[in-house]
Design a protein that fits this description.
Blueprint: E1 8-11, H1 17-28, E2 32-37, H2 41-53, E3 58-62, H3 68-82, E4 87-90, H4 105-133, E5 136-143, H5 145-148, H6 154-174, E6 179-186, H7 192-195, H8 199-206, H9 217-228, E7 239-242
Parallel strand pairs: 1-2, 1-4, 2-3, 4-5, 5-6, 6-7
Helix pairs in contact: 1-9, 3-4, 4-6
């Protein structure tokens, strides 16, 4: 029997890419998993069917985490459906990369609203539940861009650096309630987004990674599961860099 059996996880942005891999990993370990998505209902529903076909409990919610009411309602519905919220993975994020001289106010606001404000929106009601349960684990998916900064990503880097600060402060607030809060700062991961890059650009980036390759979403998912697990109960307020050595 796994420690995840009988427990419930929420993963934001869980229908594709890194989020999808985390959803599948937690489900494979016995957790009931609820995840949010914003646009493609077919892909989200296919994932639910896949997981349920393996005997797991799963639910997809079309919810924009940048909307406080929508995020709060999702948490309430997950609690009503599954009985508890034991894990939260704040994965939902967007990019609008541009040099600051070309960046519009909307480019800035959209990224900060989803990547940072969205984390507050869903974490607040989840923490309320976890405090009453006297247990829980929260993992915030940050980025190396928030650790070292990346040109053309002032909005994205600011949101991910802010997420690291959020992680450390929240960890101090709720540690005595038996709730762990950590961040996972990712480097270059092989996803649909990175797959759209030119071969020339990808090769240029790979040359900067000591391990000489992009990370796989399955690798990220296993690290995420560990940081949520009881094996990591003495780890909180930390930023784990999974970047192939990019930010050494």
């Amino acid at each position: 029997m796994s420690e995840f059996d009988g427990r419930t996880a929420i993963v934001t942005g869980g229908s594709r890419g890194i989020g999808r891999a985390i959803v599948k990993e937690l489900s494979s370990r016995g957790a009931s998993v609820a995840f949010s998505y914003t646009k493609n209902a077919d892909i989200a529903n296919e994932l639910v069917v896949e997981l349920e076909g393996k005997g797991s409990r799963a639910a997809a919610f079309q919810a924009d985490v940048s909307d406080f009411k929508a995020a709060d309602e999702m948490v309430r519905e997950v609690k009503a459906k599954f009985g508890s919220v034991d894990y939260l993975v704040n994965n939902a994020g967007i990019t609008r990369d541009k040099l600051i001289l070309m960046m519009s106010q909307d480019d800035w606001d959209a990224v900060l609203d989803t990547n940072l404000k969205g984390v507050f929106n869903i974490t607040k009601p989840v923490v309320s539940l976890m405090v009453r349960q006297k247990r829980g684990a929260i993992l915030n998916i940050s980025s190396i861009s928030g650790v070292v900064g990346m040109a053309g990503q002032t909005n994205y880097s600011a949101s991910k650096a802010g997420l690291i600060g959020f992680t450390k402060a929240l960890a101090k607030e709720i540690a005595r309630r038996n709730i762990n809060v950590n961040a996972l700062a990712l480097g270059l991961i092989e996803t649909e987004m990175s797959g759209a890059l030119s071969d020339e650009y990808k090769q240029k980036m790979i040359e900067q990674i000591p391990l000489g390759r992009y990370g796989a979403v399955e690798e990220v998912a296993k690290i995420a599961a560990f940081l949520l697990s009881d094996d990591a109960k003495y780890i909180t307020g930390q930023v784990v860099q999974a970047d192939g050595g990019l930010a050494i």
